[in-house]
Design a protein that fits this description.
With about 350 residues, the protein is mainly alpha-helical. The chain folds into two domains: about 170 residues, Lysozyme; about 150 residues, Roll (Membrane-bound Lytic Murein Transglycosylase D, Chain A). The protein is built from twelve helices and seven strands. The strands form three sheets. Strands 3-4-5 form a three-stranded antiparallel sheet. Strands 1-2 form a two-stranded antiparallel sheet. Strands 6-7 form a two-stranded antiparallel ribbon. Strand 1 and strand 2 form a beta hairpin. Helix 1 crosses helix 4, helix 1 packs parallel to helix 7 and helix 2 crosses helix 6. The longest helix is centred in the N-terminal third of the chain and has 44 residues. The C terminus is likely disordered.
Length: about 350
Amino acid sequence: MQKIRNSIVVFLLLVTSAVFAQKKEVVSNYINTYKDIAVAEMKRTGVPAAITLAQGIHESGAGNSKLVLESNNHFGIKCKSNWTGESVKHDDDAKAECFRKYPASEQSYKDHSNFLKNGQRYASLFELDPTDYKGWANGLKKAGYATNPKYPEVLIKLIEDYNLQDFTFLALKNELVIKEAIAKNEQSATNETIPAKISVQKENVINYPSGQFKINDTKVVFVKKGTSFLSIAKQYEVDLSKIFEFNEISRSEITENDQSIYLQRKRKTGNNDFHIVQPGENLFSIAQQEAIRLESLRELNWLNEEDKPAVGERLNLKSKSPSMPKLAVKENYSLVPAVKNQGSN
């Protein structure tokens, strides 16, 4: 009898584990499908991408709810008096309530962003730091978005379990700009002079949180210029030599710039499918942004150590690129100080 009981327990554990794994895969697929829309909507309206994705996962059953399948309505937005589009009937608080129907999921995401941005009762949320996902989650409940008393906890758990904060950080990244680089280059050519290599001021205004957080499921902190590497190692209990190894940089006493410092080894693949090269970026800065090992980034894109991809080129972060990206013309390339690669696979 005891053997039978043990067998039943083992069977139930296996079934539970399989169901959990299946659910996690469904949620991950949903995130991969809609993350770009959430990032774009954050740039357009300011609604944090992490919050949008968490709400979408929860309210749509990760894209599998009847309402989504019938109407592409991921956020359960009802018709209201001002809705002039198509609709469907769905049982919710009452029988056969009117819900908005969208031609595609993207319209549902846009309508959700507009709903929050233009709703007076949600105005206070936009005064919060967009990285304050706990404040946003609690603020939504306080503003009456949902009746479930556990609604904030549900969103917070989804954000933390699936690293949705990564997409908020991604949306906050401002493009690096080349200040009059092209104009200067053209002017030099007109004056029949040989243009010198252009050195450009980087303007990176990512709003990183204080303390330890994660990018691509990798622990990282953002520190100011002049921070002691030894103090970072002591504070986060990481061997000093590992700090340099994890970040693929040469040994030094202090940080030369405001920068991200990884506290564990970066991943062999990125969290995003690809990265579009921006002005002022090089392979090292991209590897740091995406929390991917520099050598892996090169290998995935057929690049050698001296190669510099051109601005606007697409670099693969998860799978091998079918071809090598176009390379920058050295005279026009925006140079960033070289960093010796001390990383290991």
